[in-house]
Amino acid sequence: MNYKLQSTPDAMGRFGPFGGRYVPETLIEALNELTIEYEKACKDEAFQKEFHRYLNEYVGRPSRLYFAERLTKEAGGAKILLKREDLNHTGAHKINNSIGQALLAKRMGKKRIIAETGAGQHGVATATACALFNFPCRVYMGEEDIRRQKLNVFKMQAMGTEVCPVTTGSRTLRDAVNEAMRDWMSTVGDTHYIIGSAVGPHPFPWIVRDFQSVIGKESREQCIAQTGKLPKVVVASVGGGSNAAGMFYPFIHDMDVEIVGVEAGGRGPKPGGNAATLSHGAPGILHGAFSYVLQDNDGQTADVHSVSAGLDYPGVGPEHSYWKESGRVKYTNVNDEEALAGFDLCSKLEGILPALETAHAVVEAMRIASKLTKDDVVLVCFSGRGDKDCYEIARVSGESLD
Amino acid sequence: MNVIDAAFERLKTGNKKAFIPFIAAGDPDLEGTKDLVKTLAKNGATVIEIGFPYSDPIADGPVIQAAYTRALNKGLKIENIFKAIADVSSELEKEKTLVPFVAMVSMSIIHRFGKEKFIAECLKSGFSGLIIPDLPVEESFEISKDLKKSGLSLILLVTPNTPKERALLILSACSGFVYCVSVSGITGERDKIPEKLLQNLAWLRKQTSLPLCVGFGISKPEHAKVLRDHADGVIVGSALVRHIETAEKVGLPAVKTAIANLAGSLVSALNS
Q1: Cα separation, B26 vs B37, whole angstroms
Q2: B156/A25 touch (CB, cutoff 8 Å), yes or no
Q3: Residues facing B179 on adjacent strands
Q4: What is the DSSP letter of A249?
Q5: Are B137 and B112 contacting, i.e. CB atoms less than 8 angstroms apart?
Q6: Which helix (H) or strand (E) element contains residue A293?
Q7: What is the pLDDT of residues B153-185, one digit of tens each?
């Protein structure tokens, strides 16, 4: 690669050709307001200090960087280090962004919060932030995901959030985003929409990446402190791509570090059988941004599948499309069966239950590690814990926890 | 002269207001769409908006969403919409009923279908303009050039929360007519005409000679009566689509009668 990678979106909200704003006129003013406020907040030391104080005292950051000895031995190559986002309050990386955006909403004087959720982790994180900062909150969640993630629905409700079932389309994350955007169209004056992934119209992909980039910043410092060098490879799972964007961004200019994003291979490469947008999709428009998307030849969004509700999304953040096309990041995929085996292996060897999203990254990291030497380091974003997936894993393996 | 401009010129001369119905292509099926277009053309429509069903229409309320889903579930393809519109264009032309068609279509569809190909198909099948609800003015300049070259209008939306300076930018890029959104929100029937809308229309009136047509939430003759003194026309979608959704139960002829009645009452409310 012989050109400098763009770190922030341009004036049109684009990373290279990707991003922009493809939304109804009704939302443009709110997005302009958000962009201006976010730019101010970036430069406002008091805001940044407050954000990091909550990350430290409330979320429990910095999260640990753990040398997974038995996974390393099993893979038989490079050292595998896990960035333990699962140890954050609420059990996943999502809280970083929810706290950041809730503070931003407070700063903008907004009175109400809405969010979408797939696996329920972003819903729980946002419900948590809303309890903390005393915002009324409504979370849109597909009916199919509500079935798969009952425990998270209960948690959100326990924290005073209203969970609104979405019954349109595929009844998953994509439809939940549609409903949240529709709500926002009518309530844009007093409501902030905390989008959970690095997707959507500008400035959302940029904001979410920035709030999540605490993952990569800490990892980079911890890796140097603990191993004396940068990792050889950094790995993270990619649905919409928020944990990956946050993990990758601080390494993007370390040209000796290979970066690998892992998508959901589902049941295989056939259309409708996976959610591997960057592997099997093409550039198009979805949810307000120009980015890779899984759609048919008419531009209709395709059905997607993954055993992991958090990766079950037909789009991906525009910055990932940019990183893919520039060649800076390699995107690969891991299928359902391999991810379930990864869950099992990680649980048994390390005593850590990974979220199914995370299991995808663990599997790919072991593959990569097996081809490297013991002097190399493979750093994995361990994005979330697997408690929420136990019911679904039991169900697909023919057991029941009820 | 673009046929949309000509249609509004004719109205102006007769001191009349525009009735712009919206229907979703392929609901109940494309044969039905042709029939309904003809019904609307013969019952006072000034311009007819043809919605291209899209899987993720974020600006649409439940009624239009459901219509899109019904059409897509039957396997509707974009190229077949163009074929059906080409058929109905030539039939209406034979009968000398000249009603311009406007495509209401997501940028997702245009991008994937291919911008040049989409514009060519629009021209071939008899569309006179486009409304791209998810294409804000900043993103519209590129396609706007191509549309202008082809003689197609690009109808842009102004909403209640669009700042004045921005509204001026939109007006400068807009052609055909201005789509004035009545409320901040999604499509769907509503009870009242907001007071702020009338103020906005008065301001817009001073800024542009383009016709001002009001949409989102317009469903009743009472709305048309209020708006006829403030705007050049009304756009009615969900109220019509709600009749079309009963097609399977009551049959298309009954739907056509209901639609002709609603169209008739709206047209007379606009012009009495």
Answers
A1: 11
A2: yes
A3: B157, B213
A4: G
A5: no
A6: strand A289-293
A7: 999 999 999 999 999 999 999 999 999 999 988
Q: Nearest residue on chain B to A25, judged by CA atoms?
A: B136
High-pLDDT (> 90) share of chain A, % = 91
Residue type, A341: A
Query: Chain-centre distance of CA B209, in angstroms?
Result: 19
Catalytic pick among B27, B29, B35, B49: B49
Whether B138 is a known active-site residue: answer: no
| Dist. CA B163–CA A29, nearest whole Å | 8
Which H helix or E strand runs over B20?
strand B18-24
Exposure of A228 by Cβ count < 10 A (0-12 exposed, 13-18 middle, 19+ buried)?
Answer: exposed
Residues 279-308 of A with CB under 8 A from B: 284-288, 290, 293, 295-301
DSSP, collapsed to helix, strand or coil, labels residue B243 as: helix
Residue of A332, A320, A215 whose CA lies nearest to A269: A332
DSSP B237: -
CA distance linking residue A257 with residue A298, whole number of Å: 39
A36 — contact with chain B (CB < 8 Å)?
no
Best of A10, A18, A21, A26 to substitute, by most chain B Cβ atoms within 10 angstroms, is A26
* CA A376 to each of CA A227, A232, A234: distance values in angstroms, whole numbers, following the listed order: 10, 6, 11
Tens of pLDDT along A174-226?
999 999 999 999 999 999 999 999 999 999 999 999 999 999 999 999 999 99
| CA separation for the pair A190, A205 (Å, rounded) | 22
A219 has catalytic annotation: no
Strands A112-117 and A191-193, by their bridges, are: parallel
Q: Could you report the predicted ipTM of this complex, rounded to two decimals?
A: 0.95
Taken in order A304, A28, A94, A279, is the CA torsion positive or negative?
positive
Q: Which residues of chain B make contact with A178, given a CB cutoff of 8 A?
A: 56-58
The residues, any chain, with a CB within 8 Å of residue A357's CB and separated by 6 or more, are A119, A237, A239, A243, A308, A310, A311, A383, A384
Peptide bond into A17 cis (omega under 30): no
CB contact under 8 Å between A185 and B139, yes or no, is no
Radius of gyration of chain A (CA): 19
Q: Please say if B222 is a catalytic residue.
A: no
Specify the DSSP class assigned to residue A312. Answer: -
Q: What is each CA distance from A374 to A193, A369, A371, A377, B50, in whole angstroms?
A: 45, 9, 10, 8, 63
CB B68 within 8 A of CB B25: no
Residue A17, exposed/middle/buried by CB under 10 A (0-12, 13-18, 19+)? middle
Percentage of chain B modeled with pLDDT above 70: 100
Cα distance between residue B264 and residue B257, in whole Å: 10
- pTM > 0.90: yes or no: yes
Contact residues, chain A, for B137 at CB < 8 Å: 25
Could you tell me how far CA B84 lies from the centroid of its own chain?
17
Minimum distance, in Å, between the CA of residue A301 and any CA atom of chain B: 6
Count Cβ atoms within 10 A of the Cβ of residue A270 and give its class: 0-12 exposed, 13-18 middle, 19 or more buried: exposed
